[in-house]
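[agent] plan:
  1. take the single chain provided in the ticket
  2. run structure prediction with default settings
  3. attach structure tokens to the ticket
  4. add a short note for the reviewer (M.T.)
[agent] executing step 1
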Amino acid sequence: MTDITRRRLAGGAALGGLAASGLAAGGLATSGLAVLATPAVARAETRRWRMVTSWPKRLPGPGMSAERVASRIAEMSGGRLAITVHAAGELVPAFEVLDAVGGGVAEMGHTAAFYWQGKQPAAAFYTTVPFGLTPAEHVAWVEAGGGQALWDELYAPFGVKPFMGGNTGVCMGGWFRDPLNSLADLKGKTVRSLGLGGEVYRRLGAVPQTTAPAEILTSLQSGVLDGAEFVGPGTDIALGLYRVASLYYGPGFNKPNGTGECLVSLAAWNGLDAELKAIVSHACAVEATFALSEMERLNAEALAALVRQHHVRLSEFPADLIGAARAQATDVLAEVAARSDVARRVHDSYVAFRDRVADWSRVSIRAVLEARGA
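[agent] step 2 finished; step 3 output follows
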């Protein structure tokens, strides 16, 4: 990066460019603006961080979100903070990111909160909840409805600070090898499904599995799995799941949102100056917005390719399955709330926000989609 570029980023001229690229939409606070506008001063040596992830390298969607967060931090900091991104399995397995960041193996991680529900049940609320908030509603809860403060409190015992760091949008219900004509057809099926949606599948008679993303295809091929949910078309097509299971079911009642999280070690975070803290938080906020926009495009393109080129059959879950799933989801959420005081407060905040925005979502988004006939 040239000296001219560094001066731009340190000076007020950079702010217009950052706002235009989406930082303003990502929650660029007045205090953050003041920090980023401070004239350049003598720079310390480059800090070098490692970011561990739960994703195959450069996986469309979350894998690329991790790469872009690291790149933005390096650029906005003028090289003061450089982050090396490690795919799942390079330093730690996919489901050990939280412990790795909290334990100092890496300073940063990119993953999904519902992977930690075994350690902290309420963590699942920060990725997605069955029949829960849509992407826009989820962002509103975290940023403007009290969700972030509860998230910080929830993760403090693990030694990490969480940020939204991407979003794969509304997810699909899953890939299945055999048709589901009724709820009875789901019983006994082994399904890759994580989070609270996985627990709903279990109560419907399926056998949920916590298969790492890189292992889903081989597990379907070998018959270990009868079905699998991951994200949506834009990411699923990269894993090649259509090669084995050609029935693609929706709606994604189990995962109506797909927030990816960036974790920063609290020890590393507290070692940053105010400017670098602002840069890290803004880089994550920009990615949360950009990733959702990109996934809307990728999902649309991939869905067309899956149907037209790969002859995937789009199917709707049977009505009795959806009805049973909705009833089970209410019980699952209530049981999570009973696990601890903080879990109850997260649950109550989330559900209250969902109830508050429901009427508006019905007369806005749903009504517009129905009016345009799509």
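[agent] step 4 note for reviewer: Residues 274-308 form the longest helix (35 residues).
[agent] ticket updated
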